[in-house]
Amino acid sequence: MTQVTLIGAPVDCGKARRGCLMGPDAFRVAGLAAALEGLGHSVRDAGNVIPGAASEHPGAPAHIQHLGETVAWTKALQAAARDAMKDSMPIFLGGDHALAMGTVTGVAAHAAAQGRQQFVLWLDAHTDFHTMETSTSGNLHGTPVAYATGRAGFDPFPKVEAPVPDANICMIGIRSVDPAEYSALIDTDVSVYDMRQIDETGMAAPLREFLEKVEAANGMLHVSLDVDFLDPAIAPAVGTTVPGGATFREAHLVMEMLHESGLVTSLDLVELNPFLDERGRTAQLMVDLTGSLMGRKVFDRPNRPFHQGYAR
Q1: Catalytic residue status for 268
Q2: pLDDT tens-digit profile of 245-262?
């Protein structure tokens, strides 16, 4: 049994298209707590994080969107992550991916305090490796990995106490990378597996290699799961859809392998925009994937109503 803390992070300032504000409640309505309790875990819903007031930063690049608001969220989520990690596995309910600026750096600070290495599995269509200088859109949901690894160019964000080493990051599902991100990543030790490589090798091989590395280091593993990791045919509720994402079975395989590893210590569920969903099916899929990560087996999955006609 795992003590799980659900932490709502209705961050909706990291991009231009709004709607992720409703994400945390959509996960709750889709039955995330009940699903985890049904697997034998103890669940506490800590409610939604409330950030401080947005600050003014007149000297910052003019094209950056909602900078003061995102800085406030980052500070609040860093504190919430460190606090929750003391006695539980936090699951952060997003909210757009800018929230990871706070969650990843917060759990990494906790790991450093424990004398352990922090590892990050980034399940996403995008690498999110921009800095404020290289981002042409000014959308800060494209920057969290660069920030968490301690890249320069993030004033006025808090100084990262425990940067995650490049070699401790694995990205799987990538299929949309801007030129500036590519140029920056090519000189790092970040492991990047795009969908072309996944087509050739499958999901299991690169993930298994990464998990062996985490285990050998006795590391703590944060998983950041973006809705757009999934193919939009099965998960339409995201404002950054990119065709060719993970299939239903590929995604569940990843989650099942993560559970079997026993290494996951924290989780982001991000970029769910319920306004774009179809009768809640994306929220439900994300809940089901979380169930697989937390121990649900294939034979444990309940039939959905539209499958009842095939019941034996």
Answers
A1: no
A2: 999 999 999 999 999 999
Catalytic member of 96, 228, 256, 288: 228
Give yes or no: 222 in active site. no
* Mean pLDDT of the residues in the chain: 92
- CB under 8 Å, gap of 24 or more: what pairs does 283-286 form? 283/26, 283/27, 283/29, 283/30, 283/237, 284/30, 284/31, 285/230, 285/234, 285/235, 285/248, 286/27, 286/30, 286/225, 286/227, 286/235
CATH class for the region spanning 3-298? alpha beta
Of 12, 181, 226, 250, catalytic:
226
The 10s digit of each residue's pLDDT in 204-217 is 999 999 999 999 99
Domain ranges of the chain: 3-298
What is residue 54's predicted lDDT score, i.e. its pLDDT? 85
Q: Is the pTM of this model over 0.90?
A: yes
- Is 228 noted as a catalytic residue in this protein? yes
